[in-house]
UniProtKB/TrEMBL annotation:
<dbReference type="InterPro" id="IPR027417">
    <property type="entry name" value="P-loop_NTPase"/>
</dbReference>
<keyword id="KW-0418">Kinase</keyword>
<dbReference type="InterPro" id="IPR016898">
    <property type="entry name" value="Polyphosphate_phosphotransfera"/>
</dbReference>
<dbReference type="InterPro" id="IPR022488">
    <property type="entry name" value="PPK2-related"/>
</dbReference>
<dbReference type="Pfam" id="PF03976">
    <property type="entry name" value="PPK2"/>
</dbReference>
<keyword id="KW-0808">Transferase</keyword>
<protein>
    <submittedName>
        <fullName>PPK2 family polyphosphate kinase</fullName>
    </submittedName>
</protein>
<dbReference type="InterPro" id="IPR022300">
    <property type="entry name" value="PPK2-rel_1"/>
</dbReference>
<feature type="domain" description="Polyphosphate kinase-2-related">
    <location>
        <begin position="38"/>
        <end position="264"/>
    </location>
</feature>
<dbReference type="GO" id="GO:0016301">
    <property type="term" value="F:kinase activity"/>
</dbReference>
<comment type="similarity">
    <text>Belongs to the polyphosphate kinase 2 (PPK2) family. Class I subfamily.</text>
</comment>
Length: 277
């Protein structure tokens, strides 16, 4: 890794919300200046990491006993789908699943809020990506009062317990909040209105969420504070530069996979006994 491309561990250190410590969003940057000073280095980094992530996913599949779950949260336009496209550009579609969580269906509303989430957890050998997640149930649901306050209050502990259960059962979890400012979102929403190929993405409901920006930020802050745990930490990713955002998430995912260090299994028979004619 070149000098101007930070080590995975260094990116982890810089972006993690340390479990148990006080957390304030205002202490976090929305734009990265330090980790990737140079945009070209960031582009090269994510390209290399994407290839490495594919190799590591192959090994994860061969090993067949564990999974990786990447949770992405962020306000509209923060770049959840762009990040997925970039970081997993080289990953075999056969080895990954992506689940985008929308407003719950009638079927989903008839169950507890974690039912649909548990059902989307990646199987062994896979990388699973959540575009939105269980955290919507303490974010939009809280801001729009879609459930009683005392029920929402219990969800932080419930989610921590759920994630601990998953990690104890072979699922490594990494959670990234893609952080942008309200001003940056304004630019990006204007872009959606102005550019014909982006208009389809514009949803008037996004403007309601934008009106409640401060409430959303307060909900995000509480979410990170209460749910960054040793088994499933939150990382706050400055996301106003798309290239650097991709590079940072790439470094985090690669670092976690390298730490998992999946191994090819022993084939279980003496290969020298086989002759291919
Ligand atoms: P998008 O990700 O832009 O396609 O939009 C999905 C929408 O579904 C967002 O406005 C989310 O806030 C909303 N959503 C996701 N999960 C929930 C939930 N549990 N309750 C209510 N709305 C949700
Ligand atoms: Mg949207």
């Amino acid at each position: 890794m070149a000098k101007n491309q930070p080590e995975c561990a260094h990116v982890q250190e810089a972006l993690i919300a340390r479990p148990g410590e006080a957390f304030a969003l205002q202490d976090r940057p929305t734009r990265d200046k330090d980790l990737f000073p140079d945009k070209d280095d960031a582009a090269a980094s994510v390209a290399a990491d994407a290839v490495k992530i594919d190799e590591l996913q192959d090994r994860l599949y061969a090993e067949g006993s564990r999974a990786l779950l990447l949770v992405l949260q962020g306000m509209d336009t923060a770049g959840k789908s762009g990040t997925i496209k970039s970081v997993f550009q080289a990953t075999s579609p056969l080895g990954m699943t992506v689940k985008a969580f929308k407003k719950p269906s009638a079927e989903e509303m008839a169950r507890d809020y974690l039912w649909r989430v548990h059902n989307a957890v990646p199987r062994k050998g896979f990388i699973g990506i959540f575009d939105r997640s269980q955290y919507e149930d303490v974010l939009v649901v809280k801001v729009r009062s879609l459930a009683p306050a005392e029920e929402i209050e219990k969800r932080y502990d419930q989610i921590n317990a759920f994630e601990e259960h998953l990690t104890q059962n072979g699922v490594t979890i990494i959670k990234c909040m893609l952080y942008i400012s309200r001003e940056e979102q304004g630019e990006r929403l204007r872009d959606r209105l102005e550019k014909p190929h982006k208009r389809w993405k514009f949803n008037p409901g996004d403007l309601d969420d934008r009106q409640n920006w401060d409430d959303f930020m307060a909900a995000y802050e509480t979410m990170v504070q209460r749910c960054s745990t040793p088994h499933a930490p939150w990382y706050v990713v400055p996301s106003e530069s798309k290239t650097r955002r991709n590079a940072l998430v790439g470094r985090l995912v690669r670092g976690v996979l390298e730490d998992m260090n999946p191994q090819h299994p022993d084939p279980g028979h003496r290969l020298s006994e086989f002759v291919i004619d």
